[in-house]
Design a protein that fits this description.
By secondary structure, this protein is mainly α. It contains 20 helices and no strands. The protein has one domain. Helix content is about 70%, strand content about 0%. Keywords: Membrane, Transmembrane, Transmembrane helix. InterPro entries: Bact_Transport_Assoc (IPR052529), DUF418 (IPR007349), HGSNAT_cat (IPR012429).
């Protein structure tokens, strides 16, 4: 979740413009893609809402009481798509790195993936009753590494092809008897199977393709909105017109495939929610071309340290539930405490203050330092020093 950062020479160079100015520059400078941070911040807070609020489903634009259901499933898919964008930015953006520079970037991403998996397992061990996305996130990082040398003209059709094929395969994988065995449950948690990497890699590959296309380019941003909206309309429209109900999903292969239900990994969900993620990213990028970039600065700050924000939410949840409730896993009891707004506002304020006064988030710093230590820079072409600020 963190980029390769500055070179050793640049990090050791004296700063003439002061500590606060460098922090402001890191969050708001021209090398930073604010729209990516905004989208990531929305994804993180959307997952907060999915965890902490009682949601009336399905989403219906004509029924305001259901509008909060927009976060269900879609926030985590947006998060996965942005993982692909981040991987693309730290491996060269529009022009993939080559030689030792690419090997170094891949090695550091692999180290981060391992650390994310360990952190995910530790968060699961707290007993907080949510499906932690980090194990799946880590596996998708690893699966994406061999694709980082590919251009957008290959990655985007690949993502489309996987989107059309993998939902057919996913139904078979989900029905394997293995998941009902004594070790099936622990393995499912370790793989983050609620977000099955076998299908969710579609969103990572799409995000990687967007980064290679040039996510900072105006025409790419406009195309994201248009293409994403069309895909969302196609998926959700077909779901509304012909989609399977929960009974049909359980009764037949076709019912399980032809659904837009959140977290179903059905064909219509992959198309509709994948398109939704692309459209949201495009809108965020366009918003940050205007004065509204300053209005949404607190959300961008959350998006600049998503791992810290996500982890902190779960740790606070575990601590409060352990102190107040009979058990940490009491989801209804914790939601009854009305934690969403205190946790959300607290996270936004803390991340904004940290970004402006300290800089990179603490967990992002830890992962970056560990990956640099484990994989020193190669002797080939230097990696883009602005990559950290772009992502």
């Amino acid at each position: 979740m963190s980029g390769p950062g500055l070179s050793d020479t640049e990090r050791s160079a004296p700063r003439a413009d002061g500590w606060l100015a460098t922090r402001w520059e890191r969050l708001n400078g021209p090398a930073r893609i604010g729209g990516v941070d905004l989208a990531r911040g929305l994804a993180v807070l959307g997952m907060f809402a999915a965890h902490l609020l009682s949601i009336t489903e399905p989403f219906d634009v004509l029924e305001p009481d259901t509008w909060i259901a927009v976060v269900s499933g879609r926030s985590s898919i947006l998060f996965a798509t942005l993982a692909g964008v981040s991987i693309g930015l730290v491996t060269g953006a529009r022009t993939p790195l080559t030689g030792d520079a690419m090997s170094t970037a891949r090695g550091r991403l692999a180290v981060r993936a391992g650390l994310l998996w360990v952190l995910g397992i530790l968060l699961i061990a707290t007993g907080v009753p949510v499906f932690v996305i980090l194990p799946a996130y880590a596996l998708m990082f690893l699966l994406a590494l061999p694709l980082t040398s590919l251009p957008a003209r290959v990655l985007l059709p690949l993502a489309a092809g996987l989107a059309l094929v993998m939902p057919f395969v996913q139904i078979v994988l989900d029905a394997l008897p293995f998941w009902s065995t004594p070790i099936g449950g622990p393995v499912s948690l370790g793989l983050g199977w609620h977000y099955p990497f076998t299908t969710w890699i579609v969103f990572v590959v799409a995000g990687l393709g967007v980064a290679r296309a040039g996510v900072a380019r105006l025409r790419v941003q406009v195309r994201l909105v248009v293409a994403g909206a069309l895909l969302a309309a196609l998926g959700y429209g077909l779901g509304a017109a012909t989609g399977a109900d929960p009974g049909a999903e359980a009764a037949s292969y076709l019912g399980a495939l032809w659904t837009v239900r959140p977290h179903s990994t059905g064909l219509l969900e992959v198309i509709g929610s994948g398109g939704f993620a692309l459209a949201v990213l495009g809108v965020c990028l366009l918003v940050c071309r205007t004065f509204l970039a300053w209005v949404v600065l607190p959300l961008r700050a959350v998006g600049a340290m998503p791992l810290t924000a996500y982890t902190l939410q779960l740790l606070v949840w575990a601590a409060v539930a352990a102190a107040v409730l009979d058990r940490v896993g009491d989801l209804a009891g914790f939601r009854a405490l009305l934690p969403f707004w205190p946790l959300t506002i607290g996270t936004v304020v803390l991340c904004t203050a940290w970004a402006l006064l300290v800089g990179r988030g603490p967990l992002e710093t830890l992962l970056d330092s560990a990956s640099r230590f484990a994989v020193p820079a190669g002797r080939g072409p230097r990696m883009d020093a602005a990559a950290d600020r772009r992502r």
